[in-house]
């Protein structure tokens, strides 16, 4: 018979899944990695099947057959109804006595703070923001793209850059170097050629996100239109953070504001400085910091919080991921 460990921590994103089996004293017994977690594309059961492979690998390596608590931070868990549905699917697998499912942005937030208190803004392919207090209160946004009022994220920035570049080339918009730098990235001389290549799928749609770093490089070279988009992203990040802080009554006290995801972790000076300047004006007590810790650490810490683990146990888990 295998033993029962403390926590099964899961951080499942669109592109990859990380799992860890953690003892109640914070010792990380095993880790495993799996593929992306995409219930909207493949259905809940198939998505959880894919997750099960990484879990089985981690359980085997830890010599465990179950855990006290499953702490799963999952992409595409945007509404409570989705969290409940996913929690029921995980519970049915019998991995742990209790199961808690949260949106994956909570993992990034918890990984970056010493207690479950603060706000995180994550800008990767999309943009999202969550906040939490130790008493269990949270603040969050649906983060489903334009239908939920989002602006920004690598995907949205690339689209916005293309829009301005197209209009600059044909005369509908103001001039911008983006009309030259975006097509050049894909080996084209004009926006018209790039638009045709995108429209006819000669460039796979998934490659559009490659244009986000081109936007930042063009902005760094001083292009006014590109700079305005980077400034707008800084404004959007701070707006989300300030709203979450306000909802949690944390605006008046010193609170960490964590910045995560590929776009924010790249530390573009204009974006970084813009965020810090606007935060100082709108949320003077906020303490901005870029999160570099592995999000699965955040899922593990949330699980240890649930078990009422000691600060020492939390530190043990953190030391595994931040030697």
Key descriptive features of the protein:
47% helix; five-stranded mixed beta sheet; single chain; 323 residues; 13 helices; 21% strand; alpha/beta; globular
Structure in words:
By secondary structure, the protein is of the alpha/beta class. Helices cover 47% and strands 21% of the residues. It has 13 helices and ten strands. It has helices spanning 39-42, 44-62, 80-91, 105-111, 153-170, 178-185, 191-199, 211-220, 224-247, 262-265, 269-282, 295-307, 311-321, and strands at 3-12, 17-22, 28-34, 64-74, 96-103, 118-123, 127-132, 138-140, 255-260, 286-290. The chain has a five-stranded mixed β-sheet with strand order 3-2-1-4-5, sandwiched between helices. Strands 8-7-6-9-10 form a five-stranded mixed β-sheet, with helices on both faces. A hairpin with a 5-residue loop joins strand 7 (127-132) and strand 8 (138-140). Helix 9 packs parallel to helix 11 (269-282). The protein starts with a strand and ends with a helix. The mean pLDDT is 96.
